[in-house]
Design goal:
alpha/beta; Rossmann fold; L-2-Hydroxyisocaproate Dehydrogenase, Chain A, domain 2; Signal recognition particle alu RNA binding heterodimer, srp9/1; 3 domains; 13 helices; globular; binds nicotinamide-adenine-dinucleotide
C-alpha cells in the first residue's frame, strides 16, 4: 500500500492505536472523545493504581450505547502502549497553593521526561502530542528527550486558544460558532498573539464587524480564558475544550486530513525563529506536521510574535538549565548514565552551586555531559585546554572537571554516574564543602 510520506500508521492493525498518558480530567475526556469518534483503540496510562483501569472499563461500557467498537485498556505501566501510532501526554500536576511556577515547571518536566522515555522505548514511530503545562517548555523537552524528528512531536495550545476566541466572537455577534474562524499565534496563554485581521465570520474579518475596543476585550478574555475557568472550578482547570482540542489534532493525523491547525510546532527559520517550539499554523496529516504555514504579518504583529517567542525561549531554556545540585535539580531527573547533553550553567546564589563567578570567572559556562569523561578530558588537555578543576567524583553523582580552552572559554566536562536521592544530596554536599574547607552561605 502506497502511503508516501505517511508511513507512521501501521497497516497491520485494523485500527490505529492511541495512547493517552494521564487519566485525569483532560486525559480521560480525550479518551472519551477519541472512542466516540472511533479514531482508534485507546490505552489509558496513569500512575494512580486502578484509575486508568476503572475509567477505561467504564468508557468501554458506554460503547454499546454510543455505538463505538474501539477497544480500551487502562494500565499503570507502558507495555500495553507498545507500537502506538499516536501518544497524547497529559500527565502532570496542576499548580497548587504554595507551589511556585518553578516547582511546577521542574515537577512536570520530570514527569514528562520520564513518560517520554517510557513511550519512545516502546513506540518508535509514534507521533507525540503534548498537553501538559507549561506547554511550550514541555513540548520542547519532549522533543529533545525523544530524539524524534520535530514533525512527530507537537503541542496543543493554539486550537484551544482560538476555540475560546471563536466562542467569544460568536457570542458577541450572536452567530453560529461554525461561521467563526480565529487565528492565534505564539505561546500558550499570556503570550498568545491573536490576529483579528485573519479572524473571520463567514469570511468577513472581525475588524470589519466589531469596534477595536470590543475586539481588545475579547482578546483579553481569551488570554485569561484558562484562569476564568480555574476561578470557577477552584479545584482544577479546564478540560472539555482542552481535550476536544487535542482530539482534533488526533483526528487530523488519523484521518490524514492535512488540516491547517494552530499547534506548538518546531520552527527552523520560519517566522524568523530557529530551534524553538512556538504556536503557528501547521498542516497536520498522517506524517504529523507536514508543513509550517507562514503568513505575512504586519510589523506590529511580527513584533508581538517575536516577543512571545522570546518568552517561550526563556521558559524552554529554563527547563534545560541546572538550578544547582540541591536535590531538586532537573539535571538529576533528566540525565541517565551514559547520556550526552549540553547545559548552560548560570550562577545560582544560595542554591549551593559553585559557579565560576564565585571563583572569579564568568557567570556562565557550558557543561558537556559525555559517556566517558576521562577520555574527553584527556583529549581536551592534549588539544591545549588548561585544567581549571581536575576531574573528580562529585557529590551530586557526576564525575566532573573543568577546563579553559585556548580562547579563554570555560567548559565543564562530566559523566553522570548515579541518580542521587534528595536526602543524600544535602549530606553529600555538606561533606563535600567541609572537605574543601568552605561553608555554604
Ligand atoms: N495545553 C493546554 O492548553 C492545556 C489545557 C488544559 C490542561 N493542560 C495541562 O494538562 C495537564 C493535565 O491536566 P488535568 O486537568 O487532566 O490534570 P489532572 O490532575 O486531572 O490529571 C493529571 C493526571 O496525570 C497523572 N500523572 C501524574 N504523574 C504521572 C506520571 N508520571 N505518569 C502518568 N500519569 C501521571 C495524575 O495521576 C493525574 O491523573 C496539566 O499540566 C494541565 O496544566 C494543558
Amino acid at each position: 500500500m502506497q502511503l508516501g510520506k505517511a508511513e507512521v500508521l501501521s497497516t497491520r492493525r485494523p485500527r490505529p492505536k492511541i495512547t493517552v498518558v494521564g487519566a485525569g480530567n483532560v486525559g480521560a475526556t480525550a479518551a472519551q472523545y477519541i472512542v466516540e469518534k472511533e479514531l482508534g483503540d485507546v490505552v489509558l496510562v496513569d500512575v494512580i493504581e486502578g484509575v486508568p483501569q476503572g475509567k477505561a472499563l467504564d468508557l468501554a461500557q458506554a460503547g454499546p450505547i454510543h455505538r463505538y467498537d474501539s477497544a480500551l485498556i487502562g494500565s499503570n505501566g507502558y507495555d500495553e502502549s507498545a507500537d502506538s501510532d499516536i501518544v497524547v501526554i497529559t500527565a502532570g500536576l496542576a499548580r497548587k497553593p504554595g507551589m511556585t511556577r518553578d516547582d511546577l515547571l521542574f515537577k512536570n518536566a520530570e514527569i514528562v521526561g520520564s513518560v517520554v522515555e517510557q513511550i519512545v522505548a516502546r513506540s518508535k514511530s509514534a507521533i507525540l502530542i503534548l498537553v501538559t503545562n507549561p506547554l511550550d517548555a514541555m513540548v520542547q523537552l519532549a522533543w529533545k528527550k525523544s530524539g524524534f524528528p520535530p514533525q512527530r512531536v507537537l503541542g496543543m495550545a493554539g486550537i484551544l486558544d482560538s476555540a475560546r476566541f471563536r466562542t467569544f466572537i460568536a457570542r458577541e455577534l450572536n452567530v453560529s460558532v461554525e461561521n467563526v474562524t480565529a487565528f492565534v499565534l505564539g505561546g500558550h496563554g499570556d503570550t498568545m498573539v491573536p490576529l483579528p485581521r485573519y479572524s473571520t465570520v463567514a469570511g468577513i474579518p472581525i475588524t470589519d464587524l466589531l469596534p477595536a475596543d470590543r475586539i481588545a476585550a475579547l482578546v483579553q478574555r481569551t488570554r485569561d480564558g484558562g484562569a476564568e475557568i480555574v476561578n470557577f472550578l477552584k479545584t482544577g482547570s479546564a478540560y472539555y475544550a482542552p481535550a476536544a482540542s487535542a482530539v482534533e489534532m488526533v483526528e487530523a493525523i488519523v484521518r490524514d486530513k492535512r488540516k491547517i491547525l494552530p499547534c506548538a510546532a518546531y520552527l527552523n527559520g520560519e517566522y524568523g525563529v530557529t530551534g524553538l517550539y512556538v504556536g503557528v499554523p501547521v498542516k497536520l496529516g498522517r506524517a504529523g506536521v507536514e508543513q509550517v504555514i507562514e503568513i505575512r504579518l504586519t510589523p506590529e504583529e511580527q513584533a508581538a510574535f517575536q516577543k512571545s517567542a522570546a518568552a517561550v525561549r526563556e521558559r524552554a531554556e529554563e527547563v534545560m538549565r541546572i538550578p544547582g545540585p540541591d536535590g531538586k535539580s532537573l539535571m538529576h531527573a533528566e540525565l541517565k548514565i551514559g547520556d550526552s547533553i549540553f547545559m548552560l550553567s548560570d550562577e545560582q546564589p544560595g542554591r549551593g552551586c559553585r559557579a565560576p563567578a564565585s571563583v572569579g570567572g564568568p557567570t556562565s559556562y557550558l557543561y558537556i555531559y559525555v559517556p566517558d569523561v576521562d577520555k574527553a578530558f584527556k583529549r581536551a588537555v592534549e588539544a591545549g585546554a588548561k585544567v581549571i578543576v581536575p576531574l573528580s567524583d562529585m557529590f551530586w553523582g557526576d564525575r566532573f572537571g573543568q577546563v579553559e580552552d585556548p580562547s579563554g572559554h570555560l567548559w565543564g566536562l562530566a559523566t553522570h554516574r548515579e541518580d542521587v536521592p534528595p536526602q543524600d544530596m544535602a549530606k553529600r554536599q555538606k561533606e563535600f564543602l567541609a572537605s574543601m574547607g568552605q561553608q555554604k552561605k
